Amino acid sequence: MLSHIDSLTDEYREDDEFILLKEFAGFSYKNIIGCYVIHNKENDKYYVGQSKDVMKRLRQHFRGTVPNNVIFAEDYFSSDYENKENLFEVKIIPCETKDELDRMERELIEKYDSRNYGYNRTIGNS
Asked: Do you know which InterPro entries this protein is assigned to (predicted)?
């Protein structure tokens, strides 16, 4: 699985592949500048973000598979999901420029409607 994570390329722009959050735990990684989408599989809610270091940002959101912040914690701890370590999955979309990051984040928030029916509270950076 590590090689899959390390080989993040433009292929992620073309498919909708999500990786279980637990697959990222414990791996060393290269810095990835890009957008990320976190999906709660139980309630089908999404969160879209961007970062100059996506993997570091994911670690700020989660400790392993347990949420570190209020955004995801309420749903996580009230979940009836049988195996909570499989509750969240992540998609990463590498980007090159700040303009591309901002545009991609807005497009993904719209695509997943994560402002109206997800965890996002804004339409993204502008």
From this structure: GIY-YIG_endonuc, GIY-YIG_endonuc_sf
At position 16, the amino acid (one-letter code) is D
Q: Which domains, ranges and CATH numbers included, belong to the chain?
A: 2-112 (3.40.1440.10)
At 42-96, the pLDDT tens digits run 999 999 999 999 988 988 888 877 888 888 888 898 888 788 889 999 999 999 9
What 3-state class would DSSP assign to 36? strand
Q: Which residues contact 7 (CB under 8 A, 6 or more apart)?
A: none
In this structure, are residues 1 and 23 in contact, taking their beta carbons and an 8 Å threshold?
yes
- Rounded to whole angstroms, the Cα distance separating 105 from 16 reads 15
Tokens of 30: 């290269």
CA–CA separation, 92 and 38 (whole Å): 9
Q: Tell me the residue length of the chain.
A: 126
